[in-house]
Amino acid sequence: MNELDAPRTPASWRDRPAAQQPSYPDADRLAEVAADLRSRPPLVFAGEVDSLRQQMAKAERGDAFVLMGGDCAESFRDNTATNIRLKLQTILQMAAVLTYGASTPVVKIGRMAGQYAKPRSADTETRDGITLPSYRGDSVNGHPFTPEARVPDPQRMLDAYLRAGTTLNLIRSFTMGGYADLREVHSWNRGFTANPAYKRFESFAEEIDRAMRFMAAAGVDFDALRQVDFYASHEALLLEYEDAMTREDSRSGRLYDTSAHMLWIGERTRGAEDAHVALLAGVHNPVGVKVGPTTTPEELLSLIDHLNPHGEAGRLTVITRMGAERIRDVLPVLIEAVRADGRPLTWVADPMHGNTITAETGYKTREFDTIMDEVRGFFEVHRCLGTVPGGIHVELTGDDVTEVLGGGEHIDVERLAERYETLVDPRLNHQQSLEIAFEVAEMLRG
Ligand SMILES: O=C[C@H](O)[C@H](O)COP(=O)(O)O
Ligand SMILES: C=C(OP(=O)(O)O)C(=O)O
Ligand SMILES: [Mn+2]
């Protein structure tokens, strides 16, 4: 029998308040889909999940740096080989730059292979006097603004499972088959720094070149670097889906959510006594929790009590999304409280979700400089307090979309309309993603 085939024990989350869940019109169909999912093979394995925990424990200590990136909302439409490859390629390029900048390993985690469910600030959306349920991600309902598309359909969870599986399959082929070879990745970055907009990164790229030549001359076995570890993560929003994907590991008797290596709880569902925290408290995966600017030290300590009561290394990541204006004021208080508590966790900066604005043309967007300012604030606060800035978490795509303002290409408000393709939040495009990596690499060195 496979290590993760055994049934799981009953869950306690069902008694708790659960925010942001779809209102399915057909409860029987939901139960059928959940039963079907329960019988399907796991998407990830306990051993892989444990490896990620070890990597996260390193990041906690400052011996590795975490890079989490991918779409705000993956879509079924964009579940193509080209899209997956471009996104993976972007994350690997960023990781190569960061690895060199930090002189430490980079833990590469995609918001990929399962990022299909979205919390929303409003339950409904109104256009031209017509009000419909909000789009909640492709695993819940459809994006088109029609009454039919917006009805939540449990069948979509099965589609999401299958697409997550095919995405993971492709990721595994790319990262295990030599495509992610450091030499390849470095040559992609060389092309990037030749762009005049990125002149200031040229010397950095030359340094990496020199280091690679030195490694080659010193007889480093580059073939041993042909394979890279790449992990999948998503927001554990749909309780029925995550519960149905939970399996008991027959070796250890522990429960794992096998829908992804790492799961996180969003800012809107992180109540310490609520269902999402109860669900993830019961599984052995590394878990993240997003915390916004109103989070109190008491709330954070209560989350630690529930999610990492025994202070196990590599278990808990706190993803701060404070907004550039507030991070320097609100983060120190939380860090001090965690330090006094003593249980370890990994601090990761999400500089996207506290910095969303609406352009005068109506597009939901973010400014590159504001995003960078939040990352800078994150580093400043950690440096000042002597704690570890453990990683970054960004929304990105490998395409040349025009969703985030600024960056080396100086995308302005008029250009947003050119290629605005996201289904929910604006993403860094390929160039903006690499630019962030170079900037963060410089911060890591500083
Ligand atoms: O991705 C995150 C959330 O789903 C998103 O920021 C909420 O956006 P909304 O305010 O458009 O619902
Ligand atoms: C919903 C998200 O973030 P948050 O929970 O921090 O708002 C997200 O990561 O897309
Ligand atoms: Mn988002």
TrEMBL record:
Pathway(s) it belongs to: Metabolic intermediate biosynthesis; chorismate biosynthesis; chorismate from D-erythrose 4-phosphate and phosphoenolpyruvate: step 1/7
GO biological process, one term: aromatic amino acid family biosynthetic process
Entry's EC annotation: 2.5.1.54
Binding residues for phosphoenolpyruvate: 111, 267-268, 290, 321
Molecular function terms from GO: 3-deoxy-7-phosphoheptulonate synthase activity
Note on how the cofactor is bound: Binds 1 divalent cation per subunit. The enzyme is active with manganese, cobalt or cadmium ions.
Keywords: Amino-acid biosynthesis, Aromatic amino acid biosynthesis, Cadmium, Cobalt, Manganese, Transferase
Spans traversing the lipid bilayer: none
UniProt region (Disordered), positions on chain: 1-28, 118-149
Catalytic activity: D-erythrose 4-phosphate + phosphoenolpyruvate + H2O = 7-phospho-2-dehydro-3-deoxy-D-arabino-heptonate + phosphate
Obligatory cofactor(s): Mn(2+); Co(2+); Cd(2+)
Pfam families named in the record: DAHP_synth_2
Sites where the protein binds Mn(2+): 72, 353, 395, 425
Family to which this protein belongs: Belongs to the class-II DAHP synthase family.
Protein name: Phospho-2-dehydro-3-deoxyheptonate aldolase
Species annotation: Actinomyces respiraculi
